[in-house]
Predict the structure.
Amino acid sequence: MSVPVLVQKDLSRNKRENLRRDVERIRLEIERDRIAAELGRLSKTDYLARLTKNSTRFESLLGEFEKVVPRELVYEFNKLKPWVKPAVYIPRELGATPYQTIIPPLGQTGKLPIEFDETGHGEICALVSIHTGNYEFSVFDDGRRYEWSVNGINAGAVCGTARRPFMLPSTYLVSVVGASRQLTWQARDLSGAPNTVRFAMLGKRHLFRDAPPDQQKIIEEEFSAPDRNLLFFMQPKNSILALGAGLTTTSQSLVAPSDAPVEIKKLTYWSNPANQPFLLEIGEYSTGRKIAADGMLIHSDQMFGDAEYPAILFESLLLDKNFQLTFKLTNLGGGPTDFYLMFTGQKVIT
């Protein structure tokens, strides 16, 4: 949730809230229509007609805004800003150092809680990790009963550092209305050696209980709204693609979950040894359509980034329920290499 620092002082709160709701409603309708059109649930003619109608409504809304906002604007701090603080959320380990965990070689941790107390709602914006070896992890939201991934999440591919954190394509909200909440975090070592891990989620804490009643209500509306999309990570069924120098995998698959479409926005990978390049052929299983022309192979530096510098798609890739991508990967490194590919986006709740 974005909390702007400046708002128009001369705009009454009720008028501002009505305009905000109208803008958000139009934005949601346009986004839902776009997704429906891409999935074939809305014809192109109907989509264009609805888009024209919503554009006209938006122009009308701008006209209303110009009537109530004077030419010379006077600004003040957003009244919600004092109740939004930076926050760092860390899995709690038992023992003398609760902020770190040591994973045994190729072993896994227990299920560790990431806690959100009743003083404020949580908003997760980025992932960071300090670790002595690569590992994969899972996150389960106990309140929503929601898993962030199907096949695990590779830390080397999606965890940056404080200098360059891995920014999530959509922030993840954790509401604590009525009770404290927790996410359950569990990790598995991939390095084959004792692995000291310090994992953290960077974000915000919305201290709604400290806010005056009118501002508390605004915060509550944001965190009680139905989910429109939820952060989601995907990696191939064979999460580790082990290849000798110059060798090519057999056909691999990436399959969307059965409960909701997924919109992919960021592509990253990690390799052991690090920074090994590869060639990729990728396309749709059902149509045979390739992202590049037939016979044209994509170099890893043309399509994939890493946790600190992820590749951001110019147009997000929408995968319908159970939709399957297939790909082949060729190792360009000088020796045997393990590759881990991550596709990060969001589940679209329609």
Remarks:
- Residues 241-348 form one domain.
- The CA atoms of residues 277 and 301 lie 7 Å apart.
- Helices lie at 13-38, 44-68, 155-158, 213-224, 300-303.
- The chain has a mean pLDDT of 87.
